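Please produce the structure of this protein holding pyridoxal-5'-phosphate.
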Amino acid sequence: MDKYTDLRDTFIEIDLNAISDNTKAIRNMVGPDVAITAVVKANGYGHGAVEIAETLIEAGVTYLALATLSEALEIREVYPDYPLFIMGHTPDRLLHYVVNENIAQTVFSYEQAEIISRLAVETGKTARIHIKVDTGFHRLGKEPDEAYFDEVMKINKLPGIELEGIFSHLALASAADDQLQFSKFTEFYKKLEAAGCKFRYHHIADSIACVDYPQFRLNMVRPGAIIYGMVGYKDTAALSIRQALKFRSAISQIHHLEIGDGVSYDFDWRAEKPSIVATIPFGYADGYPRAMMGKGYVTIRGIKCPLVGIPCMDQCFADVTDVPGVSEGDEAVIYGDGPNEMTIAEAAKLAGSNKNEIIARLMDRPKRKYIK
Ligand SMILES: *Cc1c(COP(=O)(O)O)cnc(C)c1O
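Below is the modeled complex.
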């Protein structure tokens, strides 16, 4: 936490107990034999990857997973020993970082594996890699065909490398498509293992798959969204979680408007009756979607107050005419999970986005405060 945390009324509150309880609920659901890789890419989906890491480690996750090298190195500085896994691609010229910093790396070519192997041998280390299989998503990995089988078998012979895992990712297009992807994946690694290429972890399940398809958990799952309390899965009886994040601000000024008075750029909104409008110091530079125009609201004194006018970079406007006793300094809840508060799920719907995007795009400017 930095020294500027308390210099603004606009901030993001992270409930570490919610993150801990959600993670323990996932552990309960998957049982003791399935390893949990907690996905903390994109700054822990906006929650602060470094700051929530300790809570996740205490809750017993096996791995922290990142999308990029820079994200992994940021955590590595604070946690010199904890298992870290990069699910994305790391360019050849940067592979020495993953070897030196003991970070497990996603690999899908013999060329990359050979570089990693050479670096590991040079430094006397064992580099851990996870082989990526493309079962249809066409993002990373190669198709599970004969050529890739031979390539992985060749990687398996390289010195200084441990093929710790093999994984794929579901498109979640339909139950039938998911099943097909899953079958391609399991057939491929079983064939490799029958030929002597063993993996400690097999994994394909993200948050949704991990809840809705228990049979896809194998011996490792990669939940992201559900760690933070985002419900996207269908089987809501299987897992009970809660939103960890609240986004709060406070009224900086109150304006009394006459009929016809405009608000914000272009006077896009005008008062149709004598109105009270509050200026609140949050905007799109905090990660609040401008697409919320005409749809968003904040909650003041428990009452939903519609946003009016175009959201600015640093300030928004709410119609507070119906809030008894409304005053400058009153708290305005932007995202929350209390009565009349906008949840991340609702924000996603109103902004025409998805939950992960709403939280991942929260900027650094609204400082995070952690409660425990
Ligand atoms: C982001 C990501 C996840 C986590 O996804 P959620 O839907 O947030 O659970 C899992 N696996 C991979 C490869 C990812 O990129």
